Amino acid sequence: MPNPSRRNRAGLCTLAFLFFGLEPSQAEVVQGWTMDADPALEAGLESLDAAIRDDDYLRINAVVIIRDGKLAWERYYNGSDRDTTHNPRSVGKTFVMPVLGLAIDQGHIGSLDQTLGDFYSLEDYDNYSTKKAGVTLRQLVSMTSGFEGFDFVPESPGNEENMYPTPDWVRWTLNLPMAESRQPGQEWRYFTAGIVVVGDILNRQLPGGLEAYADKHLFKPLGIRNYQWQHTPQGVANTAGGIQLTPLGFAKFGELHLRDGRWNGKQVLPAGWAAQGMQATTATTIDGESYGWLWWNKNYRVGDSDWNTAYCSGNGGNKIFVFPEQSLVIVVTASAYGQRFMHSQVDDMMTRHILPAIDSLDD
């Protein structure tokens, strides 16, 4: 059941502004966010709030909107609240990118163009080829590695579901053959196992390992303490997905990328890294969508306006949307795992409720 006190908190803050004449600078600060509840936005999103509570949209746990760097709207459902951590599945893949950027900036990784052959003795694995040895980190994070693996095709030898039962995910991945019909860097194929390998490389190269390094250089600077990694069978932080944060923690991750690696005035990531990673570079197999470095790209049409977004996406309908032109971050956490409607219902929420409500504020 929804938590009414949480659901109405932003509305109560709005009443405080109106009744006491408080300026936004005097607003409540929540986990680093200044609350800035706009009565017009509150009114515009009443229909969304009702639709989720009435189960017109199923298994939604939270919706958070950050506008112009302030917490503009937040709602929690189905027993969740501000402190509830959530498994966003493949949204967690994208957390590789800031760690990788920091690792390169600090000299622990040479560049995105380092190859698998630089990190592994691939002659010790099945299906050795110079093509496999030449696969780069850039190709892995852009899903263009050329491995015989495609998660969208159940029959694919490298489908992620074949990896999870094995005792060593990295060895399983590096044993895979390369695709005969594709060269690395040519075509996009969503390949979770390749990101597990990137995580393993980071764990090997970073002082203290991936998990401790990310805590020191990413999570602590963002003020994120309430989070949990999942782990591979080897005990390495699982970069296939599933890192659990609160919705406001996910929002901080989105805001960090919106501000090109800055948080609270400090440059957390190398300048330019976040913006470059979100940039669309590769066409996908999904019509109208492209891909950057573990970031999806698409366009929403609202009235006569185009809303271009880079976003992370995970099973269940989990999303972190970044809209650079509108200075906007939107987080949706959901638990509709494996359901056919999981992504389409979020698109419907965006085009029918959220973006029109925000668009109307500028009318």
Describe the protein in words:
By secondary structure, the protein is of the alpha+beta class. Strands 4-3-14-13-12-11-10-9 form an eight-stranded antiparallel β-sheet. Strands 1-2 form a two-stranded antiparallel ribbon. The protein starts with a helix and ends with a helix. The protein folds into two domains: 4-86 and 246-270 and 300-362, Beta-Lactamase, CATH 3.30.450; 90-228, DD-peptidase/beta-lactamase superfamily (Beta-lactamase, 3-Layer(aba) Sandwich). The chain contains 15 helices and 14 strands.
List the helices and strands and how they pair.
Layout: H1 4-7, H2 9-20, E1 29-30, E2 33-34, H3 39-44, H4 46-53, E3 60-67, E4 70-76, H5 96-105, H6 116-119, H7 130-133, H8 137-141, H9 160-163, H10 169-175, H11 192-205, H12 209-219, E5 227-228, E6 244-245, H13 247-258, E7 262-263, E8 266-267, H14 273-278, E9 282-283, E10 290-291, E11 296-302, E12 305-314, E13 318-323, E14 328-334, H15 344-359
Helix pairs in contact: 5-11, 10-11
